[in-house]
Amino acid sequence: MDEANWTSVSEFVFSGVSDRQELQPLIFAGLLATYLVNVIGNSMLLGLMWANPLLRTPMYFLLSQLAIADMCMVSVIVPQALVHILTQHGAISFTGCMVQLFICVAMGNMGGYLLAVVTWSLCLKMVAASWAVVIPHALLHTIMIAELHYCGNRLQHFFCDLPPLLLLSCTRPITIELVIYTEGFLVVLTPFAFILASYVRIGVAVARLRSTQALRKALSTCSSHLTVVLLSYGTLVWLFFHPDSSSIPGYKQQVTFFYTAVVPTLNPLIYSLRNKDVAAALRRAKKKILTWGTLRNKD
């Protein structure tokens, strides 16, 4: 395409989760509920880990990192989407879009690495190594996207994501596509390979169990983590094998919303708050708050 036809983009305009106006109140309520549950659940988990010495272990440190990543992911997407629904003006500056893209890519990948670290019970140095991988990875993709020339500014999405931004490019970004399908796939699939290998190892160990009680305990221990893994990677696989060919308007936005907002919200409920240690710490904290309230009323 001729360089004269390139458009200087200072902002992007989102299409939203859905173009149907009659659904906007329902979408707003769903987004708000999702955000509140995420922030309250993860903040409660972080507070319990800070206040309770029994939860200051490597395992719960990993869960706290997952909670932080989940909150960052949702907080950079959902509040802005809520404002856009209220104002009916879904615009974001070019710089704001690049910042949002960087945080989403970094936090999304970090969640996968943390799930892999938890599975193998690896040392905390692996957490630092994971950050050292996802930050440069997100920075690389953000810089490459920022260097593109765009022929429009209307994104068919509700936040700045790689695929809709690539679609606005005036020329086919072959270099970026090559990076995404090589380095990008390697970064995304590495933690999944670790998780898959760990479950193969667990499966072999479970197959050797003779006790029904031991089998139930093993399945109970793995059920929470396996649920989170299936939700996270299952959605990604669904998006990859079911692209925009769907006849449902806003199909990809709705599936992406599940991955970027709903799954991080479910993580503390599935993986942490149903944990016996966390539940016990929550009961103790509740008891302390009630006792403090009673003593204060007496004064």
Instruction: State Rg.
Output: 22 Å
Give the fraction of residues assigned to helices. Answer: over 70%
Can you list the strand order of the major beta sheet? 2-1-3
pLDDT under 50 segments (min length 5)?
1-6
Rounded mean pLDDT score: 80
- Specify the overall morphology: globular
GO molecular function, one term: olfactory receptor activity
Membrane topology: Multi-pass membrane protein
Main location: membrane
GO cellular component, one term: plasma membrane
Describe the structure.
74% of the residues lie in helices and 3% in strands. The radius of gyration is 22 Å and the shape is globular. The protein contains 10 helices and 3 strands; from the N terminus they run βαααβααβααααα. It has a 3-stranded mixed β-sheet. The protein has 299 residues and is mainly alpha-helical. The protein has a single domain, classed as Rhopdopsin 7-helix transmembrane proteins. One of its GO terms (molecular function) is olfactory receptor activity.
